[in-house]
């Protein structure tokens, strides 16, 4: 039995990137041997085991044969006769198929070292096109490594264009598309994910409104003003988290209930992402005038954004608002903090003590809160 460190850990170390997770490849081993050594079965479908102490994944070498469309349309064989070369040949990119033996020596059977040197993302075999998820992974790796100078190999991009027009892409489940999109959002240049899919022709069948907003798919086409990507770039430059980046990207494409329905139907997006997007839509008409210190709009922004009840979520909303409607003076946060304190200084409890109740209390509460905010500017 031989055990190798494989994949991203080897790649990232060679690129000088901090290694987050380590995966291991076991060649010549059996399930019985792994269990005998105290490993736990991690997957009911594939021969993957968890180390009893570190919890890291150890996978038996395997070979795959395409049997049906889709990323699950494979038969898998594993056993002591599967060689290191056979296992590496089934992987996606050369830079992900480097292994390190127990002495720390890097073993390269597919040209991954040369591709790291030349900053090239290249598939290993034509079998790359048999798994549609690899098209999405290629776009995500460009989003991750483009700042380091990586680009797609010409023949890999050619395969991706073929995949975009094939039945394989249609076999992708929305859950898998969302998983890759969500993983792309925190990357250093997440807009590259969408631009790469657009260029190879995959974005239109996956997310038609976004593809339409982005314009021509070819690098040689004239590009119209592309608000979704510009907003995503602003969110990234601001160091915003993935929820803000998501909402910035899709805000202009989801104006009103009818327009946002397509997104919910296309992807199984978690509620936190959709809630932030809906919040931004709810305050869209109040935020710009609030920046001009208009007291009534400022109060409505604070109320709609639930600034008092959910201050952390409100701070995230303000980051998103500044991405969507940039504040050149950068004074929005300080103004809204002061306005929030002024709003809180006028409480329903105090008005109740004055004998106000019901609709009259609500009317006076609003009037006095507006007056308290307006007084800040005098």
What is the quaternary state of this protein?
A: single chain
Main pleated sheet: 7 strands, mixed
Spatial order of the strands forming the largest sheet: 3-4-5-2-1-8-9
Strand pairing plus helix content: what structural class?
alpha+beta
| Overall number of strands | 11
Number of helices: 21
Low-confidence sequence ranges: 218-224
The end-to-end distance, rounded to whole angstroms, is 79 Å
Domain unit count: 3
Q: Average pLDDT across residues? A: 90
Radius of gyration, whole Å: 26 Å
Shape: elongated
Show the helix and strand layout.
Layout lengths: L1 E5 L1 H8 L7 E5 L3 H6 L3 E2 L6 E3 L6 E4 L1 E5 L7 E5 L5 H6 L9 E2 L5 E2 L4 H6 L2 E2 L11 H13 L5 E2 L1 H11 L2 H4 L3 H11 L6 H10 L2 H4 L1 H7 L12 H11 L4 H9 L6 H10 L4 H13 L3 H5 L3 H10 L6 H14 L7 H13 L3 H6 L4 H17 L4
Parallel strand pairs: 2-5, 10-11
Antiparallel strand pairs: 1-2, 1-8, 3-4, 4-5, 6-7, 8-9
Attribute tags:
single chain, 378 residues, alpha+beta, Beta Polymerase, domain 2, Hydrophobic Seed Protein, 3 domains, two-stranded antiparallel sheet, 21 helices, 11 strands, 10% strand, elongated
Structural notes for this entry:
By secondary structure, this protein is an alpha+beta fold. Helices cover 51% and strands 10% of the residues. The chain folds into three domains: 1-113, Beta Polymerase, domain 2; 119-224, Hydrophobic Seed Protein (Orthogonal Bundle); 235-377, no CATH class. It has helices at residues 8-15, 31-36, 84-89, 112-117, 133-145, 154-164, 167-170, 174-184, 191-200, 203-206, 208-214, 227-237, 242-250, 257-266, 271-283, 287-291, 295-304, 311-324, 332-344, 348-353, 358-374, and strands at 2-6, 23-27, 40-41, 48-50, 57-60, 62-66, 74-78, 99-100, 106-107, 120-121, 151-152. It has a seven-stranded mixed β-sheet with strand order 3-4-5-2-1-8-9. It has a two-stranded antiparallel sheet with strand order 6-7. A hairpin with a 6-residue loop joins strand 3 (40-41) and strand 4 (48-50).
């Amino acid at each position: 039995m031989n055990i190798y460190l494989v994949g991203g850990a080897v790649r990232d170390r060679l690129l000088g990137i901090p290694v987050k997770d380590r995966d291991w490849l076991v060649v010549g081993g059996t399930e019985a041997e792994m269990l005998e050594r105290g490993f736990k079965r991690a997957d009911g479908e594939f021969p993957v085991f968890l180390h009893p102490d570190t919890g890291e994944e150890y996978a038996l070498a395997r070979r795959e044969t395409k049997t049906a469309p889709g990323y699950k349309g494979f038969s898998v064989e594993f056993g002591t006769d599967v060689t290191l070369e056979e296992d590496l040949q089934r992987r996606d990119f050369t830079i992900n198929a480097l292994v390190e033996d127990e002495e720390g020596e890097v073993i390269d059977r597919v040209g991954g070292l040369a591709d790291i040197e030349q900053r090239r993302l290249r598939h290993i075999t034509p079998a790359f096109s048999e798994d549609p998820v690899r098209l999405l992974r290629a776009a995500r790796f460009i989003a991750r490594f483009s700042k380091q100078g990586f680009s797609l190999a010409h023949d890999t991009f050619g395969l991706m264009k073929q995949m975009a027009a094939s039945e394989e892409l249609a076999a992708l489940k929305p859950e898998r598309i969302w998983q890759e999109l969500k993983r792309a959002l925190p990357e250093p240049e997440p807009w590259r994910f969408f631009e790469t899919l657009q260029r190879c022709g995959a974005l239109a069948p996956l997310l038609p409104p976004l593809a339409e907003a982005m314009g021509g798919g070819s690098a040689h086409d004239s590009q119209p003003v592309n608000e979704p990507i510009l907003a995503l770039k602003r969110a990234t430059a601001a160091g915003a988290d993935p929820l803000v980046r998501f909402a910035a990207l899709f805000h202009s494409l989801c104006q009103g209930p009818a327009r946002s329905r397509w997104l919910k139907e296309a992807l199984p997006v978690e509620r936190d992402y959709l809630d932030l997007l809906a919040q931004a839509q709810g305050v869209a008409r109040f935020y710009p005038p609030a920046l001009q210190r208009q007291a009534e709009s400022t109060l409505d922004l604070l109320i709609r954004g639930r600034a008092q009840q959910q201050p952390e979520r409100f701070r995230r909303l303000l980051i998103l608002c500044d991405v969507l409607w940039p504040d050149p003076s950068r004074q929005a946060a300080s103004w809204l903090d002061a306005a929030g304190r002024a709003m809180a200084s006028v409480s329903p409890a105090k008005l109740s003590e004055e004998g106000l109740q019901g609709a009259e209390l609500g009317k006076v509460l609003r009037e006095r809160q507006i007056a308290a905010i307006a007084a800040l500017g005098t």
